[in-house]
Amino acid sequence: MNVTLADGLVLLQSRLAAAEQRELWLLCRTLSEGAVPMYTPTVRGGRKMSVGMLCLGKHWNGLTYQYEDRRSDFDGLAVPEIPPRLANVARAAAEDAGFTIQPDLCIMNYYSDSSKMGVHQDKDERPETIAAGIPIVSVSLGDEARFVVGGLSRRDPTSPVMLTSGDVVVMGGPSRLRYHGVTRILPGTAPHGTGPGRFNLTFRQW
Ligand SMILES: O=C(O)CCC(=O)C(=O)O
User: Which of 61, 126, 129, 194 is deepest in the core (most CB within 10 A)?
Assistant: First the structure.
């Protein structure tokens, strides 16, 4: 079921069938243990994030907040491509929500029981992409998460949205720069064949 939460902010509930969730979970795990493995980013100010991260297509540098072809803030390795299987999921979900995206980068985050993501805007993509309202497509797999979404100012109040495995959130148009974050993971809620923990993939167009 598709739920429009605000203009340009669409929740595609149970977008992915159980078998697809299991298939994508396995793909994420394989990628995160591959030749270019998942790592824990350190961000500006020296704080370590509580999620594991693997970027595909382009690497998000947590110290410069810029995208690059090699992980210059970590091990210098070249960034793996986005598997076409994953890019297709994002393209189709965006279309279903009324948007078009050519995803050329994906940030894959792994949340353990205690991981969180502070409230932030996704604004490191090209200004033209952001101005055009080309969406962020966010795919959830595994444990349930308490996602919070606010307005265009950090001071705006946030509302919680519980995201379960197979849900997809599309944030585009006037909602492209909404503040959002993850305040809590609900351990042990992952469907059979996914988990433990949660993978979230945000597909973006640079
Ligand atoms: O995990 C989520 O649902 C959100 C991830 C996120 O905010 C991000 O990667 O920028």
Answer: 194
